[in-house]
Every structure is written in C-alpha cells, then in structure tokens.
Design goal:
The chain has ten helices and no strands. By secondary structure, the protein is mostly helical. The protein is globular, with a radius of gyration of 17 Å. The protein starts with a helix and ends with a helix.
C-alpha cells in the first residue's frame, strides 16, 4: 500500500473510533461506504473488513466503559446470546445474496438507522420502566428474540451493534445513556466477533485494510471514550444521524451511476 493509502485508511479509522466511542455505533457505517466507494471493494469484503475493525475497536472502547462502571451486561445477556445466534444465520445468508442487493440493503439500513437516531430524545431513562414480563421465561424469550433479530441484521449487513443495539437498550430496556452506550459497545464486540468468523470463513475479510483502519480507530476510540461524558450527546447524535442518511443515499446513487 502507498503512503497516501495508509493515510486515508487511518483517517477512516479515526472517524470510526470517534463514532464508536461516543455513541456506540458500529464502524460499518463508515468503513463499508469508504471501502466500496474509495477503494472499490465489493460489499461482502467491505462488510467483513468492517467487522474486523468493529471487533478490535469495540474491545478497546469497552474496556474504558467497564472501568467507568458503565456496562450492565447482566440484564442484557440474553440479547447478547440471541445476537450471536442471529449473526451466524445472517452472515450465512449474506454469502448467497448478490453484491448489488447487499449494498442496497446496507444503504437502506444506514438511512433507517439515521432516521431512528434523529427520533431518539435525550431523556433520563429508568430500567424499571423497561421491558418486563411477569414470567421470567417469557422475559428471557423476548430478549432472545430481540437479540436474534439484531444478530441477523448484524451478520447480513455488517452492523455489529451500535445504532440498533443502542436504540434497543435505550427504548426497550431504558438504560441511562452512558450505560446504554457502554453496554451496546460490549454487545457489539461479541456480535461482531461472531459475524466475523462467518465472513472470514468465506474469505471476505481484507486484513491489511482492516488492521490499518483499526490503528486509527483504536487511537480515536481511546481518546473518545475518555471524554464521552463531556460530549453533548443530543447534538452529536443528530450530526451522526444525518451522516448515516447521507451515506445511505450516496451508496444508492453510486449503484444507479454504475
């Protein structure tokens, strides 16, 4: 790779790490469009590479949130289990879907994620108001189903966590924002790792690009996670939401141009 390519990849990583550390979003929202538009990789390899970045970055960011006691996996463990199972199924389906269809699905996913993020209000949440059933079995099955659906989308379009998991934890489990971000980041690390195995087994991971992006992502992730409590999350969420929507329409536009 040329020096310019290294610089471009590290910049992509810096943006990815910032988003992951501040709002718990998957690097797929940045890496996939960059890989497909700037480096002309097909969607399967781009998504597999983004999952590699997700795993490395989210592990580093998760450690910071764990140290600040902003991770609550006990209540959301069944979402994690369901997401792992769903991710395997989703990544298997991704291998039999055409590259054009996969790009279209991802673009739509970006737009929906952006709209969902715009609709999120910066309120105080109480976990006691979250999803609760009298039966523990029903509660467990509901959380497993939610995680399973998230996992399918994760494996299918490479969304290893982030927006969908974050919104689920905030609006269904009613975690406070910082705990929601920390918890979703941990879930993203686990789910992305599960999805990564599926893509790697099909040879759909570019390790050189992925590790280069991860360098920038880790640096930005470490810095961003330390200052997360000082960031105006409402403003940041709106900015990132519009970026999601813009990237989605750009990818759709690129397909029409081809």
């Amino acid at each position: 790779m040329t020096v310019l390519t290294w610089i471009e990849l590290i910049i992509i990583g810096l943006i990815t790490g910032t988003i992951t550390s501040l709002i718990g979003a998957s690097g797929v929202t940045v890496v996939v469009p960059a890989m497909t538009i700037l480096f002309s990789l097909n969607s399967h390899i781009a998504i597999g590479t983004s999952l590699l970045v997700d795993v490395i970055t989210s592990i580093v960011v998760s450690i910071s949130y764990i140290r600040h006691k902003n991770v609550r996996l006990q209540a959301s463990i069944w979402i994690t289990v369901g997401s792992i199972l769903g991710a395997q199924l989703g990544s298997h389906w991704a291998g039999i879907i055409s590259d054009t269809s996969l790009s279209g699905l991802f673009a739509i996913m970006l737009i929906i994620s952006g709209i969902s993020t715009l609709r999120k209000k910066d309120n105080n949440y109480d976990s006691n108001k979250g999803l609760h059933f009298k039966s523990k079995i029903t509660q467990t099955l509901a959380l497993l189903l939610i995680g399973f659906l998230i996992g399918i989308i994760s494996g299918l379009v490479g969304a290893g966590g982030g927006v969908m998991v974050l919104l689920t934890i905030i609006f269904i489990l009613h975690y406070p924002m910082h705990q929601a971000v920390g918890t979703s980041t941990v879930i993203m690390a686990i789910t992305a790792c599960s999805s990564l195995f599926g893509y790697a087994s099909q040879g759909n991971v570019d390790y050189k690009y992925g590790l280069a992006i991860a360098i920038g992502a880790v640096v930005a992730g470490m810095i961003g996670s330390h200052i997360a409590n000082k960031v105006n999350e409402a403003v940041l969420n709106k900015i990132v939401a519009w970026v999601f929507i813009l990237l989605g329409f750009i990818m759709i536009g690129m397909k029409f141009l081809h």
